[in-house]
Write a structure and sequence with these properties.
Shape: globular
Structural class: alpha/beta
Strand order of the largest sheet: 3-2-4-1-5
Strand content: 15-25%
Helix content: 25-40%
Largest sheet: 5 strands, mixed
Radius of gyration: 14 Å
Number of helices: 4
Number of strands: 7
Order of helices and strands: EHEEEHEHEEH
Distance between the termini: 29 Å
């Protein structure tokens, strides 16, 4: 049986409030104020995705994968906020600790990083997350590295 071994970080390409589609596709959602919402499915539902009852957040990579999304990026009115980033990183640190998921570029990654590493999946070409203007990070690798560094910092405080 597969275990939970990965966390993928996304933006929803929506407004700051999670909607029903967001809740269907992600385990956790973070609004602009840093409030955390749960999705329809528990992380454990993604241990076995063959039953069709799981959060389908990372095409070609949902099995064993927890999906965390920041409600943002519909357009310029909904940029990712610093509060969202901090709450997301703290949540990912808590989840990585709870499920024993190491902090590496193979296990804590953005959707864009997953797609780039897995070109034969439907995640290939996804751009979330390729920019974090509120912390002056631009580029897929740069954003992923920033998340891992911050998640590691939060985890060191636990």
């Amino acid at each position: 049986m597969t275990s939970l071994n990965k966390i993928t970080i996304h933006w929803t390409a929506g407004a700051y409030t999670p909607n029903n589609t967001d809740r269907q596709h992600y385990h956790y959602l973070v609004d602009d104020k840093g409030n955390i919402f749960t999705g329809k499915y528990k992380p454990e539902d993604n241990i076995n995705c063959k039953d069709g009852k799981y959060a389908a957040h990372t095409g070609g990579g949902n099995t064993g994968n927890i999906g965390v999304a920041m409600c943002s990026m519909l357009d310029s009115r909904f940029p990712i906020t610093r509060k969202q980033l901090e709450a997301t990183c703290k949540l990912v640190a808590e989840l990585s600790n709870k499920y024993g998921i190491a902090i590496s570029n193979k296990s804590i990654l953005t959707h864009a990083e997953f797609g780039k590493a897995n070109p034969h999946t439907t995640s290939y070409g996804k751009i979330d997350i390729n920019k974090l203007p509120c912390v002056a990070k631009y580029g897929i690798k740069e954003c992923g590295d920033w998340f891992r560094e911050k998640v590691n910092w939060y985890r060191s405080k636990m």
